Amino acid sequence: MTMDNIMALSNEAIFDELKKILVDSFETPEDQITLEANLYEDLDLDSIDAVDLAVKLQTLTGKRIKADEFKAVRTVADVVRAVRSLLDS
Amino acid sequence: MRKLNYIWRLLMTGVAFSLFSIGGLLITLLACPVIRLLPGDAARRRERTQWLIHKLFGVFVGFMCTVGIMRLHLKNADALAEARGALVLANHPTLIDVVVMISLMPRSDCVVKGALWNSPFLGGVVRAAGYISNEKSSEELVESCVDALEQGGALVIFPEGTRTQPGVPLRFLRGAAHIALGCDQPILPVVLSCDPPTLSKGRPWYDIPARRFEYRLEVKSPLSVGDLIEPDLPGTLAVRRLTDALETHFALELAACGHPAH
C-alpha cells in the first residue's frame, strides 16, 4: 500500500489494517477484535506487545508514534484514533 | 497423639514464619553493614549476600525438616547448585518454593515484588543481593533479567507470575519467554510439588495440612529455545510459541510425576 493510499484511509480501513496486524503478529482471534475490545484485558496483549504494535503502526503510517501517547491507548478504538491523528497531523 | 502432632506443627509453622521476618531484619541490620565493610567491589558484595541468603535459607529449610513440618525429596539438585548463566524456571505450588530453591543455589538472582523490595524487614537484603525489582516497565525488567543471565547469574523465574491457583490448569505469562528469547542461555526446568498441598495461594499460614507435607524438587534436563520452537519466527510469534511450549512441557512433567497441577 502506498503512502497516498494510507493518507486516504477511512477509519474502517484503519480498523481492518489493525485487525490484520493483530491476527498475523499477535495471533489474536479475529472474532474478538471489536472497537470496544481492550488490548490488554480482552486481547491478551502485554506492554512489550504494545511496543511492537507501535513499531508496526509506525511502519504502516510512516510517522513516528510518541511513546507517551501510545501508553494511554487501551482499546482498539483508541488505536484507530491514534493512527487517525497521526495521519492527519 | 495426632492432635498433639498437629498442634506442634502449627506452633512450629508460626515459629518458622516469625523466624523468617526476624531473620530478614537481623541480616538487614547486622550482616549487610558487615558485607559493605568487607573488601571487594559491588559484584563481590552481591555474591556474598547471595551466598549468605543461600546459607540462611538452608538453615530455615533444615529447621522445617527437623521440627517435622516438612520432608524434602531432592532429585538432581546438584544441577541447581552448579547453574550459572541459566534461566531457572519452576512451577509455583507454595510460598516456600523460592526458599527451597535458593537453599540449593549458592548464586541466584530473582525478581522480587516491589512490596518486598521496599519492605523494612527484607528490603535491605534483597537490594544488597542485587535481586531485580519488578517495579519497572516490562521492557526494563526483561533487560535487567537478560543482563543478570549474561553476567553468569542463575536467574530464578516462576513463569506463572504468581503461585499456582489450585485446581486451575497451568498458565504461564510471557515474561519467561521474553527473557529466554532475549539471550542465548539454557533453560533449566525445575518441577516442584507439595503433598498434601499447603502454603498455596489464598491459604493462610495457619491452615496447615493434616500431616507433615512431602516437598519434592526435581531438576530436569536443560532445554534450549531451539528445542522448543521453530527458528526464525518474528518476535511476537516466537514469544507466544515459546510460552505455549514451556507451559506444555511443564504440564507434561507435572503429570509424569503423578502430580496434577494442583
Describe it.
- The complex is a heterodimer of chains A (89) and B (262).
- Chain A has 89 residues and is mainly α.
- Helix content of chain A is 61%, strand content 0%.
- In chain A, α2 packs across α3 and α2 crosses α5.
- The radius of gyration of chain A is 12 Å and the shape is globular.
- The model of chain A has no long low-confidence stretch (mean pLDDT 86).
- Chain B has 262 residues and is of the alpha/beta class.
- In chain B, strands 1-7-6-2-5-3-4 form a 7-stranded mixed β-sheet, with helices on both faces.
- In chain B, α8 crosses α10.
- The longest helix of chain B has 36 residues.
- The two termini of chain B are 29 Å apart.
- At the A-B interface, α3 of A face α7 and α10 of B.
By DSSP, the count of extended strands of chain B is: 7
Helix content of chain A: 55-70%
| Largest β sheet strand count, sense and barrel closure of chain B | 7 strands, mixed
Largest β sheet strand count, sense and barrel closure of chain A: none
Produce the secondary structure layout.
The complex is a heterodimer of chains A (89) and B (262).
Chain A: H1 3-7, H2 11-26, H3 47-61, H4 67-71, H5 76-88
Helix pairs in contact in A: 2-3, 2-5
Chain B: H1 2-37, H2 42-66, E1 70-75, H3 78-81, E2 86-90, H4 97-103, E3 109-112, H5 114-117, H6 123-128, E4 132-133, H7 138-150, E5 154-157, H8 175-182, E6 187-195, E7 213-219, H9 225-228, H10 235-256
Parallel strand pairs in B: 1-7, 2-5, 2-6, 3-4, 3-5
Antiparallel strand pairs in B: 6-7
Helix pairs in contact in B: 1-2, 2-4, 7-8, 8-10
